[in-house]
Structure formats: C-alpha cells, structure tokens
Write a structure and sequence with these properties.
single chain, about 725 residues, TIM Barrel, Rossmann fold, Immunoglobulin-like, 3 domains, seven-stranded mixed sheet, 21 helices, about 20% strand, disordered N terminus, binds beta-D-glucopyranose
Length: about 725
C-alpha cells in the first residue's frame, strides 16, 4: 500500500503562505499544464527542509518515490508499462499475487504503430490512463519510442518503428490520451537504448546529426506536441556519459532546447553518481537494486539521490538550487496529476469498451504483407483448414519483461478461428513445433503437422516469435524480451524447415507474431498470404480470425523494413550491432531503415510503409497550393484518394520529402506526414497536407542548428516508401 497524506494539511499551508491572486490567475491560463502552479510551488519549496526535499528525489518503494508527510506531499505512484497496467508489486519487489490486478492487455507498441492512426493512439492512451487511474497510479511508464535499428533488439515489440516522425506522432497521441485521464505518461528510454545487450553499461557512440535527426525527434515531439509529463533516461551511455547524467542530453537538449518542464525519472537502478546527477541528471532515482543487492527492504535513503545529496549540499550550499529545481519539476507533475485535488476523472478497468478498443487496434494494426491470387479472405471452395503452429494457442501477455500484463483474458488465434470460421469450415489443429531449449525440430510434432496439412485444403500457419520459453521470463531462453537481444534472424525451433515443407504441400497462409520478422527463405515465396501481427493483445486472436474471414479489411502498414537477411541492415552490415561489449558505434549515422535501403537501392523483402488491403486505392491529382515557400511559410497541397476496389477499406497516404540538391548527403526519402483515410467502395476523398519549413531541414552540426537549404524539394506521396504515386516539386526561397 502507498502511504496517503491528508490534502487538508497542504491546503492549510497554502493559506498560511501569501501569494497574489493575480499571479495565480495568470498561471492558470498557461498552455502548458505543468506551468500552472509555480507560485504555490515556490511557497511549498520555502517550507521544506533540505532533508525533506531530498525525500522526493528517490524511490521510497519499488514503484513509488518519496513524499513529505509533515507537509501533506504524497508519494508519486508509478507503474509499468506501455501496453497495460502491470500487476501489483508490493512495496518491495515481490508481486502481491492478488486476483484483483488484471488489466486490459492492449496490442504492443509495434502493432499500435502499424495502425498509423493517431486518433487510435489517443484512444489507446485513454484506456491505459483510465485503467492506471482505477488502479491508483499517477504515472504510467510508457510509451517506448526507441528506434528500431536492428531486428534483433529484444524490446522492438514494445517500441514502434524505425522512423522518428511516425514514432513521435503515435507517441503524442498516446500521451495525450493517457494524460486526458489525469495520469502522467513517461516517454522512454531517452535515448539510444536500441539494444538490450549490455544495456546497463554500453556506450552508444552517435554523431550529433544522427542523434538530432533519428534518435531525438520522437522525444522532442512527445514533449512539444504530446506535452508529456515525464521522461525516462535510458540505462546506457551516449557518447561517454550515462544517459541519467548526460550533460548534452539532459541539460543542453532536454531542458534547454526542448524546454522540458516535467520530471526525468531514472530507469530502475540506472543512476551512477550523486554530483553529476544532481547537477544535470535525472530528478528521481528509481530502482530497488543499488543500495541492497537482494532487493529486500533496500535502504532508499542511501541511494545516490538520498543522503549523499544532503551531505554534498552541506559541503556546497550553493548546490541547493539544483535540489530545488528537481523538487519544482516533481511538484509540477504532482499538481498536474491531481495529487493535491480530487479532480481526476473516474478511472475504469476491464470494461467492454476497453476490450473493444484493444480489438480495434489489433484489427487496424495487423499488416497484410502479401496476398497472392487473393487467397484472403478465405473463399467458399475451402472445406478443411489445418491450423498449425504453437502461436495458435500461445498466450503472450504475462511475458516479455517489465511490460508484462496480467490480462483479464487473451483470446488465442485458434479459439477465435474456431468461433469465427468453425461453422463454415472444418478446422483441425496440429502444434507443429514446441518451444524447447534445444531449439530443435520435434519429429512427432512435425509429422502430425504434415499429416494435418495433407488432410486440409489450406494451411493457416500461426508462428513466428514468442517472448520467452514458459517460465523463462528473465532466463536464458528469451527472444522478444527485456534484457536480452535475439541471437538470430531466424524464427526459433526450426520453424523455417516446417514452414518450407508445409508451404510446398498445400496453399499456406502464415500469421507471424513478433517484434521482428525473419530472413528470407523458400516459405516466403511459397506462402500465398502473410499477416504480420506483432503482439496484437488480448483480442488479437479475434482480429486475426476476422481478417481471415473478411469481416475486417486489413489496413495496417509496416513500421520497419523487413530485409532479406540480417547483414542487409546497415548496423549489421557495418558489424556495429551489438558493439564490442564496451562501445557500439552508430557508423550508419542517419541511414537507418528505409533511409538506408531506399538511398542505396538495396532490395528488401517488404518495405517500410507497406501493407495490403482487400480493396485497391488510387492516389492521384497532387495539387500544390504554393510552389514556393520561405522561412515562415508552409507548403500546402492536396491529393485525391479513391477506393477503386470492391470493398470498403482504409489507406494510409504517406508523404515523404527529398532534397534535390544538398550540401550534405540526405536520404532520398524522409517521412514528413501521413493520413489514414477510410473510404467506402468507389468513394474519393481529397486530403489536405501542410508542411512547415522544419519538414525540409537537416541538422547542421557545424552551425548546431536545423538548416533548410534554398532550392528544390520533391514531395513524394504514396502508399508505401517504395510505392510512390504522386510527385510535386516545391522551391524554398
Ligand atoms: C525497464 C523500464 C521499466 C522499469 C520498471 C526497467 O528494467 O527498462 O522500461 O519501466 O524497469 O519496471
């Protein structure tokens, strides 16, 4: 249980202190909700002793940071994670093991981002915020926006994409949704936590241009557009300094350039110093490990930001101002999440609406990668379907690391396929493979699967990745999981062999789960249709069955490039993943994902932004409103989108820019806008876009600023990064 303090004491203290009503009124009108209580905060800080202030700067239990009882300042209560409120920890690390802490298990970040639907991102956030509120949390530790630099990163499933613009947009919607419920979001992990290997110590060596153009923009947008209340610096080092005390990231960028007014909360156990952290690092030190290795009753006061701060400030009284700044940022968030009033909306949990939203996100986030001869939706000639693969019956919510959720329920693909298609078709099931430590074929299971396929008209193979072997949440046998990267770009348990065989004997449809795909092999060419599901949440099975039956028309788009082989990814081609144990050099610079593949003309299996529908769309008629623009101007244009097929459906119209003549090497495509549009069959809609001058700029490290070069730019509009239908040229004067 968290300690609760009486708000009345605090109100009495406010009344006892004097601050002018007119200042208060002015503050109330501040657009940034974090800035509406500065005078109250001034008064409060004046009342606090150094020891009391320091209580706020570190954990007071596994998921709370400290309060001050004497002044009615409560603890802040945090919870994982990005796609559902995690089950309850006690004040120490152990789980409470109660039956009342289940939650809505939403599709994970990668599936959410594949919807390319910002409004859905907002609704997703409201569900998470509402459930966090019902569970008496103040801050939910998400969204995760780290860039997908390699398919091997164990946490890609929690993250969103290889593209910084898409990540920032989807995160901002999510954050606004969470915060509409009176709860704070916490965007993480700032920054370059793009691998789990040696995450606690690895030093990511990244050029300033790559940081500014690739690794920082999602955080910038989360702050500027999403108005996020808190941020979590990453475990790793960037350019020689731990993120939690990194002067460039924390002071120059976060607090000065981004003008961030909220709290930086350390990742758990990620603080390494008192002085550096006090002067320019995180505001709150979280974790249970440092002071006491056993995690049992850690002495939180001995954390780096505990008693050592008191000692340091006593030696250097002028450092107290740094303590005050941190306390100010913490109190701002406390006011914004209504710790001192009762103005939070009512929270709700596990409602029908929440579960429906989980389904909706899955329906829009599952990506149809291929559909030869329109094998999908399933037609009436089919009599028997063989569902094969362990992921047809697996449940994923409780695994993966800190983002684990105790789902109220999780519908498996097989359950949903039987329910949705069972009346029409005979459904037989064979497991095909079994997660096993040896990573081997299990001959009996393979035989059973081949027999099932022989009896069926079509195979629906449900496989791909899983988080970890059952019961191996933090152990050796982990794949899409925290704390460990994948060791191979091949699906585990020799699935490739089975898929190759199955796809040769019967028409096969593959449904792939995971935070990444796998290398190209025969089965990819043989398989008639492929659905990439990511981790589609508690209603994922339903969404898969509805897409197979045609009840739902797929509209997801890939948020990362699927390359033919591992060494095609630039970080691997250069031998720079996961580094040498000490450093990882980001030598590919800004050429990450499609920025690299498109610029170098390298073939890929499925490109960024790709995703099919059961209908077809035409994007036509690009009309720039102005062909020239200048510094304070925008580029405005319209395009028409028509549903030219036989079904209602949705298309994601993607806008990329290309700088035709540049002093520096720039990618041939950079995503700068997108819109998802729902069209009835035969319907046309005109979409308007507006790009500000920022959309055309690059980071100039010499000038240490963003530069838009005079000259021509192409605006490329299409339905994926490689399927560009319309181009217009505009000139920056
Ligand atoms: C993870 C964070 C998480 C924290 C608290 C860390 O291990 O990196 O993402 O929020 O634990 O569980």
């Amino acid at each position: 249980m968290t300690k609760r303090f009486s708000p009345f004491l605090l109100i009495a203290l406010f009344l006892a202190t004097t601050f002018s009503c007119s200042t208060e009124k002015k503050e109330a009108q501040q657009t940034n909700p974090l800035m509406r209580n500065e005078s109250k905060i001034d008064s409060l800080i004046k009342l606090m002793t150094l020891e009391e202030k320091t209580k706020l700067l570190h954990a007071s239990s596994s998921f709370t940071s400290g309060g001050v009882e004497r002044l009615g300042i409560p603890e802040l209560v945090m919870s994982d994670g990005p796609h559902g409120v995690r089950m309850e920890h006690g004040r120490d690390w152990e789980f409470d093991n109660i039956t009342t802490d289940s939650a809505t298990y939403l599709p994970t970040g990668i599936t959410l981002a594949s919807t390319w639907n910002e409004k859905l991102g907002y609704k997703y956030g409201t569900v998470l915020g509402s459930e966090a509120n019902e569970r008496k949390k103040d801050i939910i530790l998400g969204p995760g926006v780290n860039i997908i630099r390699s398919p091997l990163n164990g946490r890609n499933f929690e993250y969103m994409t290889e593209d910084p613009f898409l990540a920032g947009k989807m995160a901002s919607g999510y954050i606004k949704g969470v915060q509409s419920q009176g709860i704070g979001a916490c965007v993480k992990h700032y920054t370059a936590n793009n691998q789990e290997t040696k995450r606690g110590s690895i030093n990511a060596v990244i050029s300033e241009r790559a940081l500014q153009e690739i690794y920082l923009p999602a955080f910038r947008r989360a702050i500027k557009e999403g108005n996020v209340y808190s941020i979590m610096p990453a475990y790793n080092k960037v350019n020689g300094q731990y993120c939690s005390e990194n002067k460039y990231l924390m002071e120059d960028v976060l607090r000065k350039e981004f003008n961030f007014k909220g709290i930086a909360i350390s990742d758990w156990g990620a603080v390494h110093s008192t002085k550096e952290t006090l002067l320019h690092g995180v505001d709150i030190e979280m974790g249970t490990e440092l002071a006491n290795k056993t995690r049992k009753n850690p002495n939180y006061d001995e954390f780096f930001l505990g008693n050592p701060v008191v000692k340091l400030v006593k030696e250097h009284p002028d450092y107290e101002k740094f303590v005050d700044e941190k306390v100010r940022r913490i109190l701002r968030v406390m006011f914004a999440v209504h710790k001192f009033d009762n103005n939070r909306p009512e929270g709700e949990r596990n409602t029908k609406e929440h579960h429906e939203l989980a389904r909706k996100v899955a329906e829009e986030g599952i990506v149809l990668l291929k559909n030869e001869n329109n094998i999908l939706p399933l037609n009436d000639d089919i009599k028997t379907i063989a569902v094969i693969g362990d992921n047809a019956t697996a449940r994923h919510a409780i695994n993966g690391g800190s983002s684990q959720v105790k789902a109220q329920y999780e519908i498996t693909p097989l359950e949903a396929i039987k329910k949705e298609l069972g009346d029409k078709y005979k459904i037989i099931y064979a497991r095909g493979y079994e997660p096993n430590k040896e990573n081997a074929v299990i001959p009996e299971l393979e035989k059973e699967a081949l027999n099932a396929a022989a009896k069926a008209d079509v195979v629906i193979y449900v496989g791909g990745w899983l988080h970890n072997l059952p019961g191996n949440q933090w152990g050796k046998y982990r794949y899409d999981a925290e704390g460990k990267d994948k060791t191979s770009y091949e699906f585990p348990f020799k699935q490739k062999e089975l898929m190759n065989k199955l796809s040769e004997i019967k028409p096969m449809i593959a449904v792939i789960f995971g935070g990444s795909f796998a290398r190209h092999d025969k089965w990819v060419d043989n398989t008639k249709a492929i659905l990439f599901a990511g981790y589609p949440g508690m209603e994922g099975g339903t969404a898969i069955a509805e897409i197979l039956s045609g009840k739902v028309n797929p509209s997801g788009k890939l948020t990362f490039t699927i390359a033919n082989k591992l060494n095609d990814y630039p970080s691997h081609k250069l031998g720079e993943f996961p580094g040498n144990g000490k450093d990882v050099l980001y030598r590919e610079g800004i050429f990450v994902g499609y920025r690299y593949f498109d610029t170098s003309g390298k073939d890929v299996m499925f490109p960024f932004g790709h995703g099919l529908s059961y209908t077809t769309f035409d994007i036509t008629n690009i009309k720039p409103e102005n062909k020239e623009f200048s510094k304070n101007d925008t580029v405005r244009f319209t395009v028409d989108v028509t549903n030219t097929g036989e079904r209602d459906g949705a298309e994601v119209v993607q806008v990329y820019i290309y700088d035709k003549f540049s002093a520096v090497k720039r990618p041939v495509k950079e995503l700068k806008a997108f819109k998802k549009v729902f069209l009835k069959k035969g319907e046309t809609k005109t979409l308007s876009f507006e790009l500000s001058n920022d959309a055309f700029s690059y980071w100039n490290p010499l000038k240490k600023s963003w530069v838009t070069e005079p000259g021509d730019f192409d605006i490329l509009v299409g339905s994926s990064s490689t399927d560009i239908n319309q181009t217009a040229t505009v000139t920056y004067k």
